[in-house]
Amino acid sequence: MTTDTEKLEADLSLALPGDYFALLKPRVMRLVVFTALVGMLLAPGAIDPVIGFIAILAIAIGAGASGALNMWYDADIDAVMSRTASRPVPSGRVTSGQALNFGMVLSLLAVLTLGLLVDWTAGFLLAFTIFFYAVVYTMWLKRSTPQNIVIGGAAGAFPPMIGWAAVTGTISLESIILFAIIFIWTPPHFWALALFKMRDYGDAQVPMMPNVAGEKSTRMQILAYSVLLAPLGVTPFVAGFAGLLYGTVSALLGAAFLWLAYRVWKIAGRDDKLLAEKRLFAFSIFYLFVLFAVLLVEAIVFRTTGVYLFAATGGL
Asked: Which residues pair with 311 in a beta bridge?
């Protein structure tokens, strides 16, 4: 007969380093680190490279902690959905308790590191982001309202503000604009995914917009958010903290995003709609990456030359 201790040891033996790394949601972490770095380099003033590295590391650990806590709480949902069933907790490679402890320890480590060694405003923002994602979104919104992604999207939009605060110790209009771009981008991005993963969300009883409001309403809301996103993406140029290169790229990408969203709304026929949904989802990732990549390049050039790339529009 197997004792509780032997069972625990057997459970522990299933967990490999790669499983704990998977708990961090590394793909999400990369986006968090990238956008936080852009916020840091766009911020006025300078930060010691070592302190800057510590800040990015702490933000990365905080993002990973959020992912671990999310996987701990959502193990029952993840086990039902095809795209998440192989995650460490539902697959049994990591126990629920291990995931919870891992997430809590990393959360504390990340916040204290950022607060004590870099800046407490940034540390508070990181703590709030972890709380918002793990508690407000994961434990409350995700299972209770089709607006889960709309409100919960704030968690993914905070990293540029955290990066900015790590340098300046403040929250500014510029960092709020960066927050707003990611916040408004999130619903059409995730709803495009939800449209072609409706069965998964239905099986898991997650009230995603297509399952609750229907496909027609979701497509209209995707288009509405895209109408807001297209001009919002250009705002850094209009506000004077991005150059002509960014202004041009963001306008073109915004127009393309809007066109793809229109296609999702307009096209008839299940196969054609499925293709349109997948195209919008894939392009939405490309859109956000390129927008922040151009901001990053311009920030580096500005810090080197004192002017924005392809435009001498002033300085930060």
From this structure: 308
Q: Which residue has the tokens 């380099």?
A: 41
- Model pTM above 0.70: yes
Beta-carbon contacts of residue 193 (< 8 Å; ≥ 6 apart)? 277, 281
Q: pLDDT of the chain along its 316 residues, tens only?
A: 444 544 544 445 467 888 899 999 999 999 999 999 999 999 998 889 999 999 999 999 999 999 999 999 999 999 998 888 899 999 989 999 999 999 999 999 999 999 999 999 999 999 999 999 999 999 999 999 999 999 998 999 999 999 999 999 999 999 999 999 999 999 999 999 999 888 888 888 989 999 999 999 999 999 999 999 999 999 999 999 999 999 999 999 999 999 999 999 998 666 688 889 999 999 999 999 999 999 999 999 877 776 655 443 434 4
Give the span between the Cα atoms of 217 and 123, in whole angstroms. Answer: 39
Q: In this structure, what token pair is assigned to residue 214?
A: 């229907």
**294, 249 contact by CB (below 8 A):** yes
Is residue 208 within 8 A of residue 196, CB to CB? The reply is no
Per-residue DSSP letter, 15: -
The CATH number assigned to the domain with range 13-171 reads 1.10.357.140
- In 111-127, which positions are buried (b, 16+ CB within 10 angstroms) versus exposed (e)? bebbbeebbebbbebbb
